[in-house]
Batch of 4 targets.
Target 1
Amino acid sequence: MTKDTQYWYNRTIEHLVLTGRSNRTADTYAREIRHLGHYFKRPLDQLKEEDLRKFMLFRRNECKLSGSSMQILHCGLKALYWDVMRIKLPLLEVVKVKKEKRLPVVLHRDEVKAILNHVSTPQHKTYLRTVYSCGLRLSEALNLTVNDINGKLQLLHVRDAKGAKDRFLPLPMKTYRCLQNYWLLHRNPRLIFPALGRGRINGSTASKPMSVSTVQGGLGRALKSAGLAGRGIRMHTLRHSYATHLLESGVNIKAVQGFLGHSNLQTTMVYLHLTNWGQEDAFKKINSMMEEL
């Protein structure tokens, strides 16, 4: 990456963070800036509208970016040129990126159990159990602290989540006991999932949580061992599965919305498409009603 590209990449990251994006989201939106600099190899503030048109077509047609990835590209370029450079390129206003509406991958409960049974280390087993049983995002689980766990009330406090919001979640007793037992292995005064370091001996003194690559690697190995690799399962799949399984168990959709931290009920309602919950009962009631005609 050239110094020019690095400069604008950093400026865009700073802008996104200052306007409320998480560090991870900011990096996701800004990553196309690196591709842009590599593609043209000249100062980004000298690029013209036609240059951006050429780059966007290249990423779509040659690199085969999906609709969601093209949307990330579009947001990243708007942040750079509109907000950071203050250059209002009309192209970025007229371009419309169609967002793909795909249903998320969801696991059967037996498959979740199989994944947990094939995790090789206490840190990954506890982490994956916590993500699934509380419906957490990857970063939410990584950043949990000792003060976020309330075993007496069986509550989990998720702080500064997506949209800078806090929320309280039901903490299953079995998950609480797992968290207790895992914490006793490292006894970090603040973090639940500290970076253990080489030899896994630095847990008690670590100031940062495990890395994203560490937990993703643990999930990947568990999927391979359980025979579930190659199905597009990601960490977020556990969260999707949690929501779907709650609805299947009869939990009110408004409660599920609150547990997931969704601002809009429409976001939560996608999980209704992934379950047959209530359909059989509805069929019986409709059949009975129509018999009376």
Target 2
Amino acid sequence: MDDNHDPIRPEELDGLFTRFAALGPGALAVSGGSDSTALMVLFADWLRQRGRSTGACTVLTVDHGLRASSADEARAVAASAVELGYRHATLAWEGPKPRSGIQAAARTARYRLMGSYMRAHGLGLLLAAHTRDDQAETLLMRLARGSGLDGLAAMAPLSPLGERGPGDSAATGGRALWIGRPFLDVPKACLRATLEERGVRWMEDPSNIAPEFERARLRAAGAHLEALGLTPDMLALSAARLARARRAIEGMVDGLCDPAAGAVHVDPWGVIVCDRAPLQEAGEEVALRVLERAVIAAGGSGERVPLAKLEAVLAGIRAARAAGPGRWTLARALIAAEPSIVRVEREPGREPLPEIAVSPGATVLWDGRFRVTVAAGFPGGPVQVRPLGEAGLRELRRRAPGAEDAPARAAAAVPSLWHEGRLIAVPPLRYWAPPLASGDVGAIFVGIASSARALNPADAGDGQRRR
């Protein structure tokens, strides 16, 4: 996209949208502001160019209930969406609203509601209208928070929308949900010029200029920032270059975590063991990322770990070589530094392990750590999934002495599968009661690579994390 502020032309649409085509069917996040209205209009144009119907896509509008006019605004978006041939759904943020941090809370609610709708309707991709201006503001806000490389790389064109909760069914067939941002290289002025050229109106959110909100204060300071050379174009360019550096470092982390490298071992019962020598020798940024992947996977929280806490644990691990063994807890994970290894596992007793029912044909994420699947042809209704526990482990070892010989604490925290009051499987310990087999019911630890990407959707927002 050029740096001018001319309207977007038809020949530019392929460059904006084609890269997301393989992830459909999808939804569009539309609030009625200029950016999201332009997304709705331009995506409809691109679909027509491709000979595709807008009727396969759904426009999602969240009514936060924060203004008296919000319901009317949602209805106006619905009318515009239907006129363009889209399906439309209004999602209401119900219940009490916080007195502070309202924008962050509204953002969390927005992505939660849209993600739930997408899972329920088998949609894999959400397109959002974040612009180059939004990218620049995100970088500035994260600078103010002392963010690390991940935060300063700001928003990515494509990133995970968020992981399922402990009992959410896999309406998307186990596929991840994604958020795509086709306008990250597009100035807001281009989108407004596009709408103005067509005579399309949009709504203005008063919070965009309310001084109590951080983004509004940054916009008010825009002229002063630009006088210092901190233009949206230059800030977005810095974010893009930082993202390039992050990808390079992530490649190094992938290499260290690759089973072929022999530095990180992932047990099927959910324990991650890192050799201390490679972790000690790796650059600090690489070691931090390996440690974070292990904590996210073993703890199952599904969220990024605060950078300052990771740094403190890594410093302790490196110091423990001289001081002796060390133990830390972080994000539901227990980290133990031993003479030659660092062991990361689920922290016992931090939170109760869940008990859920899984219907035939469904896949769920249990405790944020194990994907539990029940085959569509499984007879007899739902399977109960609960932690094996110490008593269950004793019973399992009585029944199947050859079952996987996992450490007792880790084994007690794996999912066990029950049907009509009978233990039918403990897949992480390689046990299935005859005549069942792994194709009937399963539970697989999501592992270190998957958990590194199972992040909360707030990476699309205002930089609340210190990464």
Target 3
Amino acid sequence: MKKALICSLIAVAAASVHSAGFGIYEASARGNAMGGAVVGDTRDATANYHNPANIGFSTNIQLAAGVTFINPYCDIEVNHVSQDRMNPGWFTIPTFYATVPLPFDLALGWGNFTEYGLGSHYSPGWDLASDTQKTIMRQITLNPNLAWKATDWWSVSAGLRFSWIQFTSHKEPYHGQNLDVDANRMGTLTATDPFMLRSKLKGDDWGTGWNAATSVRPIDDVSIGLVYRSRIKHKIKGNFDLKGGVHGVASGTLNVPGVPYPVATSTTIDEKKSAHLPASAKLRLPQSLTLGVNWDVTKRYRVGTSLTWTQWSSINNVNFRIPGYGYTLPLRWRDTWRAGIGMEYDLYSWLSLRCGYAYDEDPSRKSHASTMLPAGDRHIMGLGAGFRITDNLRLDIGYNFIRMNNTHYNIYVKNYSGGTEKYYVSNRNGYSHLASATLTYSF
């Protein structure tokens, strides 16, 4: 049905595992622990994400593999009535990086990481199941980079970003709404909650973008990095499935507003698949610019800062298609800033301790919010450690605690009669736990 398809597609642009918008910034255990403040001086193969220009200063082949586990959750109230906690479980984000020095002061890099993602999961039949019940998006970026060390203190790089997205969205269209049987002349209504519809939308797509970066070391103890990532256009193609029908009226079919075909009606509903249709949506991933400064205060103590601007307003509208139908849904997101600060101390030659903090703005507006993305700015606290196991092998670990600001907003859901129903939604006690590890080997 059209309404379910609209809501399913908008999930791609309106739900996040835990970051404001649906950006994912957790690309290495060291970077996570330091609040992302490693842009100026990354020091290892994970520079392919944090600042690819830094691989221009590498002198040997390096491989780095890691993983981040994320568990977000929050309490939800709808019209001041508590709902079951939103808890989609644990998400796994793997990463892999490699750097290879080349002749003529060139260096080749490769990165596999995640830039975007989402996950929301509510209990079936909750009060806003028609807005969303479960949505998951997975994204992977394949990123080759070429860096050139122009001088001993300056490096530049450029790379391509091959982005793959897959998403799945489940809803219960018109859940909790009543049926106007007189207008449809379907007989006497015997059910108080007649709509027993279950929708599912699943699709994927490949898109291409690019990145450019520079790293400058004006003095021995200070390094400055700047990274630009371009927009990526996706046309996500998939299938839309609808099960169920309308319960509690005489057997037959019913033309439900927003449904591109008549749905079955009966005093009992057979939960077999009713429809299987192709569907697509256009999505433009935003461009971003990151600036970072790192300072070696002493040989054992280092600090860093980072600042990221993301143009979330570039996905102001989401265009979607099903056969014979087109629609543009406004989001009206705002551009945001993310700021981080971190520090690192070498307690021993084999052990480094780290901590950091990041503040992540929410791009959504209260007038256009969605339960697919619990709204609210994020505060991200990090701790971590680095262990030098051998001269060539290092293990980094990190833990982050994310607190989301309590927020209140309105949700508008299209009802069966063709109008909209307004719901007052509150997000409270929004938290996430992150655990990460990265293993780096230098040849």
Target 4
Amino acid sequence: MSIRARGRSRRRMLLISAALGGLSVLLGACSSGNAASTSSGPASASINLAPFEKALQADYKGHFTAPPTTAPPHKKGVNLWIISCGQASEGCSQPVANAKEAAGALGWKATVFDGNFGIGDAYNNGIRQAIADHAQAIITIGVNCNQAKSGYQAAKAAGIVVVGADSYDCSDPAVHDGANVMSATVKFTPAFPSAADTSRERGIAKADWIIVHTKGHAQVINTDFAGLTGGVYENQGFVSELAKCKTCKIVKTITFSPADTSDGTLKQEWASALAQFPNANAGVIISDGIVIQDGMAQAIQSAGRTKTFSLVSGEGYAPNVAMIRAQNGEDAVTPFDSNWLAWGAVDTVIRLLDHQPAVYEGMGVQVVDRTHNLPAAGQQYNSPVNYQALYKKAWGVS
């Protein structure tokens, strides 16, 4: 059954995709349709789980390092603009608020522009307004090169420092739109330096969790958010890691675009897959917002499979954490702390304004489930590192 991607308005598509994707609102080339994919191997064969168990223990510990302990002296009175992927999305507004807080700690003026998911050329307009305001630096939260290329080029021509936070530059293979236009993108860790590497690692961690928790006999309903740059990389990581388990199998892959989350199409495809594959015991999705908005958890509940089917998702928002705790339709997430990313973006600006290179900021992926790293009731996931205090100390403002 093909996923229909026609007849949706551009406004509705962008609003829904950004609201669900959170910080990962990085729209690449959209595609739609279904494809079944399998990782072959006899179900009765045995597999050595030790490598996956070892990997999962590292995932539980977290793939992050400490923030930098020193920084060059920061310039005074910097005029900073922060371009948000869309303030209606928590995944955009939270890191924006943190970037503004970090700038405030330095005594900088920080202006927030709501990119409103790119509707009406908003991303380009925001960058142009920053240029007109004589901004010395711009941070873009979740705005790809190809979503605001003319604005990025204008800022570069004006000599403005532009830092992308989870924003993919033009030379990224999944964007493939010419030479870079950003001054830098925020670096994560030495092991997973880029947003692409980190997204790929999120997919790998999901596979590790599923392989171990199904004892090497995973029957997976996979979802591939092919309309999202981060989704492309996450799916690559998941598929490649699961393929190492020769007794595991992807029984169905649902490929969807942002538009397919807006009208119940994805919800219908998911429910149909659950019915079509009653022996499927695991599934993956990129975003916690989609789990709730598109009724994925509800479908698992309605099918009476909350104890036999494990769903692994994304950010660790409070409602999703509650479901993980109750084992009621979602079982694990593989987040990275996007608020830490925002502080790292400000740290990167400090360095570039001093003509120093970007450094590794330290944020990375960590697995959360019922018995590991679960936040307190009513709370969302935050990394265990007190990065705000560490940054302030490095900046000399603590």
